[in-house]
Amino acid sequence: MQDYKFTYFHVATIVIIYFSMNIKEAKIKLESYCAYQERSQMEARKKLNELGLYGDDAEELIVDLIASNFLNEERFAKSFIGGKFRIKRWGKNKILSSLRQHDISDYCIKVGMKEIEKEEYLKVMEKLIITKNETLQEDNIYIKRNKIAKSLIARGFEPEMIWVYLKQHIL
Question: What pLDDT digit, counting tens, does each position of 119-131 carry?
Answer without folding.
Answer: 999 999 999 999 9
